[in-house]
Amino acid sequence: MVGGSPEEHAEVTACSAEAMAAGVAPGMSLRRALALCPGAVFLPLAASAIRAEAERLAELLRERTPRVEEAGEGHLHCEIRGCRRSRGWGRRPTRRSCRKGSRGRRGCRCWRERRRRCSRRTRPAARWGWGSGWRGARRAAAGNRHRAGAGAEFLAHLPVEVLPVEPAMHQRLRLFGIERLGQLAGLPLSALQAQFGPAGRRAWELANGRDDARLQPAPAALQVREEVDLPAPAASLGALLAGSEAALGRAFGNPELQGRAVRIVTWWAGLEDGTRVSRRLAFREPTADPRHALFVLRGKLETLRLAAPAVSVGVELDGACSEYAHQQLLWAAGQGRRRELDEAIAQLHARAGGAQVFRIVEVQPWSRIPERQLALVAYGS
């Protein structure tokens, strides 16, 4: 089992088919797993390694289908419905689930080749399962059974801990003597609804293999790249800033960034000798202003020393988000701005023939009558 030591207050991240046959399931507490399977070997969770392998596996899947959902660390779902002709996958429309640590489906020659490639490029080898719904595919991958069979029969032997409900419901089901999904599927729906409400109905549907949940792939990250060729090779700060200003103006003017701000700007310069120098800027706050981005970039370029003259400069905007708003001061500080304000108000009073702008002053702050505490006085009087 993977997740840590049984003495830790943690959950099972992954387990072997033998442990699952003993009643262990991902998401179960390690102490509960030890009680069900005393002879199991517990391995620590290498989160960084799982994250790196999961990213590599996600890239391999996106080569075949754009709908890839990251359901957890090292756990991916992908939709292959409609990809048979364009991508060369299997004949039946289905969903596939992939977990770190198992084999894949053997039926389709194209799929076998894809499984071999993923197994060669990921360590340990990935586990694959497929079914009509992502939950069935997930159980197939977790149990090292590549294809989810006919609904309830395939799920009957699994423990109730695999249900995506609150742990308190798992405990209550155990107290009622319901330990497997097959037992839960055989109960009347009305009884589960009366005992657990909507969660009971959802658990009954899942135990019977009924699942209409859809994949929710993460939106593709928006990246805008622009590059400008310099009129002549240059190494001066002024030439680099001029090219960067043009590149930033084009990038922020992209229609895809309309009404959006960015968090990160990557700047690079293509040198005359064929090499490239790059700098990465992370703004303190998201910005949609190319002038602000150029101001921040200037601080990086002032200390830059190029090994050869630059022939081009470019930028890449990343981390797009909703536009970030700032509350500005009504008037900038300074005596000059205050005099301009006084003159403008005096002109307004002169044109109107009377006071038009007032200020609030304290008169009798100790009074219990609110009208006597404050008063309106003409501005400038």
TrEMBL record:
Chain ranges of the UmuC domain: 1-69
Pfam families tied to this protein: IMS
Matches recorded under InterPro entries: DNA/RNA_pol_sf, Rev_trsase/Diguanyl_cyclase, SulA_CellDiv_inhibitor, UmuC
PROSITE patterns found in the cross-reference section: UMUC
Keywords: DNA damage
Family: Belongs to the DNA polymerase type-Y family.
UniProt xrefs under PANTHER family: BLR3025 PROTEIN, BLR3025 PROTEIN-RELATED
Protein name as annotated: UmuC domain-containing protein
Lineage per the UniProt record: Bacteria, Bacillati, Chloroflexota, Tepidiformia, Tepidiformales
